Amino acid sequence: MNASDTGGNVNFVGNQTAAQLICGLAYRNFVPPGDEIWCSWAWDSILCWPPTKASTSARHRCPRENGIDTTKFVEKRCGDDGQWEGREGSYGIRGGSSSPGNPSVSTNGPHGWTNYTPCFTPEMLQLIRKLYSGSEDAAKVKLDIAEKTRTLEIIGFSVSLAALLASLAIFCHFRSLRNTRTRIHKNLFVAMVIQVVIRLTLYIDQALLRTAEATGVTRGIQNTPFLCEASYVLLEYARTAMFMWMFIEGLYLHNVITVTVFQETSYYRTYRLVGWGYPVLMTLTWAVVTAFYYRPSKCWWGYNLTFYFWILEGPRLAVILLNFLFLLNIIRVLVVKLRRSHTSEIEQVRKAVRAALVLLPLLGITNLISMAEAPLDKAVWAFALWSYLTHFLTSFQGLFVASLYCFLNGEVRLALGKAITTYLSSRGNDFRNRRQSPYTDCHPHRITSAIQVEEDHPKDLPSHANWTRLCCPGIDIPVPEEPAETTV
Predict the structure, then answer these.
(1) How many angstroms separate the CA atoms of 205 and 295, rounded?
(2) pTM of the predicted model as reported, rounded to 2 decimal places
């Protein structure tokens, strides 16, 4: 496969021109011994090959790049006439065109051909073969689509992060919203925030590395040992915790609607243990297995393509299926109650469909699309449809959940309305008080005069207790008792 055909899957570290210059300087003084025939040094845009004796092969360990197994070796053979062999086994210059479904790494020029195919991990090789199962033009279009969907992801995650943080601030500020249901929402939002922050950090780091490669600066999370792996472990833990809290959302809602007697407060401690504790066991198990499998590779690239990823993905899929069953039962109970209310058939269907659509993002059912295998070997339109739909639903999921269960929630809107009304009322009264008097502080003689005015004009001013709270919130003045009526 041509190095440029990987679309960035084999990233060149540093400045290639500088590396080629260093390679030439290292062997500029080499002189073949005696009358022996040797191939001159070669730079194939990835590795530097030393001068090699004719009819022998030079050997290099595979480069440390994404999707490469560094325990394997790549060879380059010098022909009998002192020319690096081409792809077809002949000598001299041989271009490296790759056939569909059988990609090979090759370089054009007087340096022959280098086959890097044995260096790829099985997951990477399978990915490349699927991508290039059709024409090379179609593969380039798919890579361009993948690049555009990354931009869509960054925008979606940024919007979702702002919405989730605003929702958490609202839930934490108002005491009237502190109940078991909103506590579950808050835990789900926290798991989503952690996941979004890590994803954005990794995406920004990758973008900076691609930009910085032209200047030779290549230090970041992706090429820092242990930091990169730890980032992915924390990401998968947050994602697993998100699924667990989605399961708790579905279980709680199902119990509230279908169970006659349900003590919601008695289960919250168990909810926290399941939501945050169980993902620790799952993630640690997966991390240990993946660390042994990817020990020679760089930053566990393509770990989601391995069979071991089902240690995490299996329970997540089970959560979605259970929540789907909860949703079906909730819709069934809802339809039964709608029929008892003697509403029209069309109205019943409309309400049931609306309830189902509202619950889909909360219960995580929309994640089924992202769990499906990418159709790399399908037509371009099929891959584009899957890619845009998957990344749109995944990145904007935080916005959907925050909007449906915070911003559009009746209790939240009522609490916000009361807070805004109280704030505007206090500001308005304070402004009127400042206009009526040059004094800004509260004094006893002004309170007394205010009481007197209130007695004279009870309909024009608020009650004594309300006036006192508006003027001096820290002073508690008892309200005088009205004289008892006497009956003659």
Answers:
(1) 23
(2) 0.72
**Do residues 58 and 78 make contact, with C-beta atoms less than 8 angstroms apart?**
yes
* Helix ranges (DSSP H) in 119-179: 122-131, 136-173
> Please, are residues 362 and 404 in contact by the beta-carbon 8 Å criterion?
yes
The two structure tokens encoding residue 87: 């792809």
Q: Of 114, 3, 116, nearest to 63 (Cα)?
A: 116
Q: What do you get for the CA distance between the two ends of the chain, in Å?
A: 111
Q: What is the pLDDT along the chain (488 residues), one digit of tens a residue?
A: 333 333 333 333 344 567 778 888 888 888 888 778 888 888 888 888 888 888 888 888 888 777 788 888 888 888 888 888 876 544 333 333 333 334 444 444 456 778 888 888 888 888 888 888 878 888 888 889 988 899 999 999 999 999 999 999 999 988 888 888 889 999 999 999 999 999 999 998 888 877 765 555 567 787 777 888 899 999 999 999 999 999 998 888 888 877 755 555 567 888 999 999 999 999 999 999 998 887 766 688 888 888 899 999 999 999 988 988 888 888 888 777 777 776 666 665 666 666 666 777 767 777 888 888 888 888 889 899 999 999 998 999 999 889 888 888 888 888 888 888 887 877 766 656 665 555 444 444 443 433 343 444 444 433 333 333 333 333 333 333 334 433 33
Contacts of 71 (CB under 8 A, 6+ apart): 62, 296
The rounded distance, in Å, linking the Cα atoms of 261 and 390 is 39
* Residue 43: strand, helix, or coil: strand
Nearest residue to 264 (alpha-carbon basis) of 276, 251, 277, 273: 251
- Which is nearest to 320 in space by CA: 247, 397, 370? 247
Distance, in Å, from the CA atom of 329 to the CA atom of 337, rounded to the nearest integer, reads: 12
**C-alpha–C-alpha distance, residues 72 and 86, integer Å:** 21
Burial (CB count within 10 angstroms: exposed 0-12, middle 13-18, buried 19+), residue 397: buried
42-43 vs 48-49, strand pairing mode: antiparallel
Residues facing residue 60 across a β-bridge: 74
User: Could you write out the DSSP letters of every residue in 311-336?
Assistant: HHHHHHHHHHHHHHHHHHHHHHHHHH
SS (H, E, C) 407-467: HCCHHHHHHHHHHHHHHHHHHHHHHHHHHHCCCCCCCHHHHHHHHHHHHHCCCCCCCHHHH
